[in-house]
Structure formats: C-alpha cells, structure tokens
Amino acid sequence: MRAFRLPIIAAAVALALSGCMQTTYPVAGPGDLDTMAYGPLYNQPAAAGASGGGAIGALRNSFASTRAPSYAPAPVAYAAAPAPVAYDGGYQLDAGDKLRVVVYGQEGLTNTYAIDAAGSITMPLIGQVPARGRTPAGLAAEIGARLRRGYIREPSVAVEIEAYRPFFILGEVQAPGQYPYVPNMTVESAIAIAGGFSPRARRDVVTLTHSNAGGPSRTSVPLGTPLGPGDTVQVGERWF
Questions:
Q1: Considering only CA atoms, which of 112, 102, 96 is closest in space to residue 166?
Q2: pTM score, whole prediction
C-alpha cells in the first residue's frame, strides 16, 4: 500500500511545481527605472506590459503624474548708453578753444581747428575767420556765409567744441600752472587737480579772474563757485 502512495505523491508535487513556473510577474528592468525617474524618451516604443498593474505600475503612474517645474528665463537688464556731452549754445569762443568744423559733403574742409592768439581760425578757401566772442552756432553761420560767396552753392556747416581752452591756477597750491578744462568744474575741483592746498594756503575763499565781452573781472569767491574755461584761480596765503 505504501508503495502505491509514493508515485501518486510525486506526481502531485510535479504538477504543483509546473504551475508555479508558468506564472509570470512584472520585473522592473533598467529601462523601466530610467523611465520612471526621468520620463519617457522621445520616439521610444512602449514596452510590452508597460501599462500593467502591480507595484511597478503604481510607481510608474506616480512619476508620470508629477511634472517637472518650468523656469522662465530672468529678464536681462542692459545699462543705458551714456548721454553725449551737451555743449552750452551760449558759450563764447576764445583763443585756445579747439573746434571740430564739419562741412557736409566737403571732406577737404571738414577738420579740427584751434583758435589762435588773434582769436581766429584758418580754413582752406576762405582763410582766416574771426571766432573770438562768437558762439559755435554763430561761427558756423559765418563760415557758411563765406563759403556761399563763390565756393559752395548751399553749404551746410556745423561747429562743435572738441576741447575747451585751459584754466590757470596760481598761488598757494602744490602744483600751480595751466590745466585742461573739464565741463562742470568748480574752484575746489581745480585746486584738487593742482595737488591741493599748500600748508600756508588760505582755504575759505580764493580770487577768481573771469574774462568776457566786457573785459576781465576779479572777485573773491568760495570754493564751490563754478569755473569757466580760461579762468584764473589765485589761492592766497593765510596770515596765521
């Protein structure tokens, strides 16, 4: 009887093992993990059984429902270009000023001209043109009028100040002398350019000499007084 039961038990065990081996379960391969972490690749066909259930499917669905945040590029701010220096239209020219004269369409006449000690500039064709006491616009009109007299039918002329005449600083400063003028200067900035006060300088007021159409004038002024081209600053000596 025992010999008869052993073959039956062996057959039952074999049938049970064969049934277990035929059952398959989803396994996450390397490609599945990459897809869940980074999203599906473009033009990649879906794997067989990719939409199946189970823990792998739930994990895949949770990654798919989470979208990566989108970041908009921050706007780039560009610094505005510096504005050109605006020259004073009422500025009166004098010896030492350097001018840029532009005659449109006439390269031989367009050039840089310096006002000489006599107060004039010398140009081709028209020779000497008085500039002292004129404004840049007034000088441009005079040049145009002279060119119109037998040289150019309708000349178009512009005059700009390329460099102002220098200023002078004397007296109790470290380095007295002549210096190039810079727009918007004051007496105090002129003293700084000359190296500052000497140990014996009077530091509250200075003497400023300014020349205009009525002639030179001398006044005692504080350090914040505006300085003009061609002005002379005299720094006095203190008494104690």
A1: 96
A2: 0.59
